[in-house]
Every structure is written in structure tokens, then in C-alpha cells.
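Structural prep section.
Before we set up the soaks we want a predicted structure of the protein with magnesium ion in place, mainly to decide which crystallisation condition to try first. Input record follows.
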Amino acid sequence: MVESEPGNDGEPEAEATEKGSLQRLGDIDPAAAPRLFSGIGEFDRVLGGGIVPHSAVLIGGEPGVGKSTLLLEVSAALAQQGKTVLYYSGEESAQQIRLRADRLGIRSAGIFLFTSGSLEELKRHARETRPEFLIIDSIQTLTSRKTAAASGSIASLRNVTAEVIDLAKKSGITVFLIGHITKEGQLAGPKTLEHMVDAVLYFQGETQADLRLLRAEKNRFGPLNEIGIFQMSEKGLASVNDPTQVLIQNRLSRAPGTAIFPALNGTRPLLTEVQALVSESPFAGNPRRIAIGFDGYRLSMLISIIEKKLRLPFYKSDVFLNVTGGMVIREPAADLAVCQALVSSCRSIAPRANSVILGEVGLTGELRPVSFLETRLKEAIRQGFSTIFLPALQCDKKLIPNFQDISAIPIESIRDLQEHLRK
Ligand SMILES: Nc1ncnc2c1ncn2[C@@H]1O[C@H](COP(=O)(O)OP(=O)(O)OP(=O)(O)O)[C@@H](O)[C@H]1O
Ligand SMILES: [Mg+2]
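Run finished without errors. Recording the C-alpha cells verbatim:
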């Protein structure tokens, strides 16, 4: 139990930019608050095409992945456009941030920095500098006098976040909050804060050491699962322009146990490699099924369908499934690609060269259509893939771009897959 006092902190409230009056929806001018572009392409993309003014965005990520770097770069880009940015860092000293800024080549007068302090001090600085953007690095290090006793607790974190968002909305500030991810314990991870903010982005580091993915897990103003891809270097984060190339460049072509799936992340099609390893299990009767970047239950389901329809002996095999490059696939459209990787590994047959594969698999082994077929296929063709395995229902000239130049192979049921792998 924690003692707490009701009431406000005696400070004047920030000036309201909007009256709390009743308005007709139709009377509100949408052009009054247009989106703003930071100029960092991948960042704007993940936010749904630019920053929505007065929004609150939470960015979570493992320690050291580059959250502070990203937001310092965003601050610099905004400051360059003449915006005022107030940057709070509770984790690094002003000198350390200056050193980072020098390394990244950032020199900006438009960024105000303060490194130690409380919520009350933040409010004071915000009144003085009247920033358009506020960066909180990190929300876990910001405390309030009101809840000082419980600083670090979930209740305090919620309270501080609510106050920061309130300040931002009332004063017309756009706020970016950095949140730490912790497994369990005193500090609350971004999960508890997710409902309070407009967008939640996760910043992930990937196996290919310098690749970083920014993913929208929640966005009130843009598509879900939109991803931005960066490359980290000494000079900072650089947007990756052709991510497909980065994702599939290291693959061995025609290796058994692989499939290339044209995935859709938000609005962007991305060719993604699915790999499977099927090997005899030392644990008779209780083989392992491990999926990385794919739903484990769905993998089990697909294995059962293959077992039943193709009579392959999966019951005595360990199965490992991996989506390379740290990508995550949540679309049922990837079912057939997963099945190809599984069957191809199990029978040690390489898939067709230069082929992509897509389709949802039903419980009877039938193939179901996928969404956004044209967008996916355009990307595959642009990357030089010439053979496409797709649901028979969608094997239609009108649906497929460049129909005459590619070979589109209809798959009606999962049995057809085996036929094609045999050829
Ligand atoms: N000189 C350098 N050359 C290349 N990369 C560097 C260099 N210095 C830092 N980095 C990269 O920056 C990352 C740290 O970035 P940053 O401090 O922004 O992470 P963070 O997510 O804010 O971490 P924390 O959670 O600890 O605050 C390192 O993991 C490294 O990849
Ligand atoms: Mg940091």
C-alpha cells in the first residue's frame, strides 16, 4: 500500500489551445492540423505517413537497440525545419548526449535539453520554451513529486504518463515517449501504457547485427504492422531503401527447407524467407515444434494437415521454423510457404528456382485466396522472381500483373504442392 495525496500540485495549468465547446463533426476543419514530415522516411512511414500533430507516441525496445539515437535524429530533423524540441533525458548527462550528437553530426540550436528532473520541472521548462515537440527518454525515469514515494511503481508510471499526455494535448505539443521493456518486476513496460497513447512503436535489433526494425504495434492514425527498416552505423541510423534486398540477399537459392513469401507489412510488400528444418526426433512420441517469427499453434495445425493429407511422418520429427531477418509473419497467406518449407525439408527436395509461394491453407488442405495479391506479386516480379505458386482461385490473368512474362502455377490443394516439389 502506498500513501498518496489527492489534489493538484498548485501550479497553473498549461494554456488550453482548444475550447471544450461542443462542435459539429462536419464543421471541424481537417486541414487545420496537417501531418508533419520529419524527413526521416522510414519513421514517417511507420507513423502512417508523417507525424500527427498533438499525438503521443510510445517507443519501446530492448536496452541499447538505439531508441535514444532514433529520437535524437528525429529531434534534429524537426529542429532543422525550425521546430522547437524539448528533450528530456533521465539516463544520460548533457555531455553524453552532446557527444552522441557530435558523432551523428547533429548541431542544432532548436533542441533544448534537460537531464535531471521531475514532472514539475518538465512542466516549467515546457512553459518557458513552448516546444512543439517533447521527447521523454525514458518515461520510467521521470518522477513526480506527488507520487515520489512510489516512483518506479506501475501506479506512478501511469500517473506520470497521464500527466505528460495531458500537458501535451492541452498545450498542443507532440510527444514521443521512450519506454523500457522489462520482463517482470517493479518497472512497468510499455504494455501498461499502451492504451494511453496514440501509437506504440517497437524498435528491434536483428540478427544481422546492424539492421533495426521499427514496427507499429498500435496506431490510431495508420496501418498496423507497418515497419520501417534502418541500418545502424557510427554515423547513426540510415533508412534502408530496398529492404527486400537486405532480407533475402544472403540466401542460398534452391536450398531444401526454404520458401520465399511475398509478405505484406502494413502497406509495404516485402519478400521474406521462411526456413524449416525437419529432423528425426530423439524424443520419441514428444517431438519438438519451435517457431520463430510465426505462430506456434498455426505451425502445429499446418503440420497436422500435411501429415494427414500427404502422409508424411511428422509425428516422429522435430520441427524448427524460422522467418529470417527477424521478421514476424502473422498472415494466414503465409501458410502455403510454410508448408513448402516443411515438405521440402522433410523430403530433402529443393523448391523451384526463382519462385515465390503464397496462399492460405484450410483444414481440409484446400487453398484459399489471399488479400492484396497484386501488390505482393508486383514486388516479387520487381525483384526478378519468375515463378509464382498461388491459390487456383486467384490464378486469373486479370489479377496477376505481367501475366505473360511469368509462370503462374495454380495450387488447388496441399496435395498439388507435393506434385510440384517432385518435379
Ligand atoms: N561508435 C558507434 N558506432 C556504431 N554504432 C554505435 C556507436 N555508438 C553507438 N552505436 C550504436 O548505438 C546503440 C546504442 O544506441 P542508444 O543509446 O540510442 O540505444 P538505447 O536504445 O537508447 O539504449 P538504452 O536503452 O540503454 O537507453 C548501440 O547498441 C550501437 O548499436
Ligand atoms: Mg537511451
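Observations: Residues 34-241 form a domain with the Rossmann fold fold (CATH 3.40.50.300).
Flagged for discussion at group meeting.
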